[in-house]
Amino acid sequence: MKVKHLESALSSLQREFPNPNVALEQYPTSAHLAARVIAFAAENGDLGRGMSCLDLGCGTGMLTCAAAFLCDVVIAVDCDIEALRVAQENACSIELDDTTNFIQAMVRIGSNSRVAKKGASKRKGTGRGRGQRPPQRNTKEILIEGLSDGIPMKDNCVDTVISNPPFGTKMNEGIDAQFLRSATRLARKAVYSFHKTSTRPFLSKLVAEWGYKLEVAAEMKFDIPQSYKFHKQATKDVKVDLLRVVI
Amino acid sequence: MRNNTKEADGKGFPLRITAVEVRVVDNPDATNVGQREIDFVKNMLPVLDWPALVQAASQLGIPTLPPQLTEQLAQDPAFLQALYHILMNVHLVKGMLTCPASGREFPVTDGIVNMMLEEEECERVRV
Fold first, then answer.
1. Out of A53, A68, A174, B84, which residue is the most buried by the measure of CB atoms under 10 Å away?
2. C-alpha closest to that of A1 among A41, A30, A29, A28
3. A GO term (biological process) for this protein (chain B) (predicted)?
């Protein structure tokens, strides 16, 4: 399927989140970008007929729907039920709801679990001395051991994982690396994931420690629009890498 | 919520399905299931946990799968076509998935399954 056709089909979908949640860094992936990433993955033989795909942190389902045009099975995972519903409607509107499956689950449970609930107020402090939770394991340890994410699926259960994860800018530091860890354990063939360019050295080391090969497939700027009232500028340009991890 | 359950919950696989509402996509036109679909099913066979699939299909109102997947069946196009229909066209719209080991329930509403876990449960999720 031609990229332009794919992009055109995706552009009719609802991209916007109904009530964007600040803490979850919810913003939509553009039709243009979704089409390009999926087409690129297909060129590499990582997506296509007879294959399965998982969209980790699917949001309103742009990547999910793009993948559903090409794959036989797409599993879309997100912690926000409202976003999932929009994603499901999007899949229905292009009649791809038979190949898409929606699961509400959370990549990182624990210190971040409260922020997924609507209306959660900003936490004060990060748990030092609060004494109510068991001591948090060092994030890096968790990431290297690869234990304990909240996705109830087996390792290597899908061919390819695609993800546009939160970047860890909203009191959820390390969430981007956690997403990448979950993605790499769930995939059999490859992972395509967006990450801030500034994290590239750190993630390269991590991926190497996990035993996989990492490529920077593309560099781009994300134009994150003013979704939230407190944004001072109209849009913010963030330098972003599209990483491809070969499992 | 597709029939082909890949989810695992620690030692609790497969999840038991309590179906309240199932949607079956009508596929009266057998020519819809062509070679591509048959090839897809063939590729899936090594990955499928057959007893789990038989149980899941039965819990979704389709008790007709044979208890064993024989080599003969695996080569039979008619069987593969029927299997494709079961794998891809049967959707759980409303119901419950229950872990046989812990009893933990995951509700399914409007085709979306809620698998949000608490912190203590995470360690057991790993397979």
1. A53
2. A41
3. rRNA (guanine-N7)-methylation
